Amino acid sequence: MANNPFAVLFPGQGSQSVGMLAELRTQFPGVRHIFSRASEILRYDVWELIQNGPAEKLDQTEFTQPALLVADVAVWECKKNHFAEQPLYLAGHSLGEYAALVCADALAFEDAVSLVALRGKYMQEAVAPDEGAMAVIVGLSDETVRAICDEVRDVSPANYNSIGQVVIAGKTDAIEKAIQLSLEKGAKIAKKIPVSVPSHCALMQSAALKLAQKLRAVDIRRAKIPVVQNADVAIFKTPDTIRDALIRQLTSPVRWVETIQWMIQKNIQLFYECGPGKILAGLNKRISKDVITENLA
Fold it and tell me: For a tag on the chain, would you pick the N or C end, based on fewer CB atoms within 10 A?
């Protein structure tokens, strides 16, 4: 598998679904053991949750985050020995960055499971129900979306997902105003998306402060494979800079377009999506028609 330079990408929230990885488990019985290790830490059966739901619980961010982390890492553990060479880079979309750091041996699996469970809990606690929201804007330039957010206030870009697709996050009333203004300016699509938490915006500041305290106590090592991190589209090599990027990630936008473009400039034309679903493959296709993204799950 893969004789050309390649990178491995780890999806984040939105890629979860009840029944995910069922087929992988039949091919690789070791998948269940990986989930068992996480279940011991979390004190509930993660495999049971992702196989049988209910979907409403799986979609709650405090359950989604550890479930997807474990799913991403499980796919990596099953498929990493199929590569003829080591990937040049790893990157993860939002939550997926934690999986990338685990697979780069910068962060212990057990520490990551505990961290993302707390990350989800802190994010859920940061905003009261109905106080915050997110929306997807399609068909406007990044500059126009940023200008709309500046005009409305209390809302900001959260994910630069692909060319012409930006997700915004902020207070619910501000999101509704931004949607209306986006449509007036010619957006093809401007609508709320069903999420339990408005990620990657200023409303996550209290969550970031709590997460920072936990991260200071976690051992982070130099990555064995370079990880391109979301907040800066940069590779950090020291524990302190990796830790700082993870903290800032909660209140900073996911710069996915720039992340993929950066790797393309480094002669990467082949990507593998390491986790459930094909969301990143779809985003990459809209970023560049010249790259190939294959799914490993």
Answer: N
Element (H, E) at 135: strand 132-138
How confident is the model over 243-296, as pLDDT tens digits?
999 999 999 999 999 999 999 999 999 999 999 999 999 999 999 999 999 999
Residue ranges of domains in the chain: 6-127+202-295, 132-192
Tell me which of 15, 156, 200, 252 is the catalytic residue.
Answer: 200
**Residue range 6-127+202-295 in CATH 3.40.366.10:** yes
Do residues 219 and 109 lie in contact, with contact meaning Cβ atoms separated by under 8 Å?
A: no
Q: Are 167 and 157 in contact (CB under 8 A)?
A: yes
Q: How many CA atoms lie within 13 A of 161 on its CB side?
A: 23
Q: Which of 94, 162, 182, 252 is catalytic?
A: 94
Q: Is 94 a catalytic residue?
A: yes
Q: Is residue 200 annotated as part of the catalytic site, yes or no? A: yes
Distance CA 161, CA 32 (A): 32
Phi, psi of 58 (to 5 degrees): -60, -30
Rg of the chain over Cα atoms, rounded to whole angstroms, equals: 18
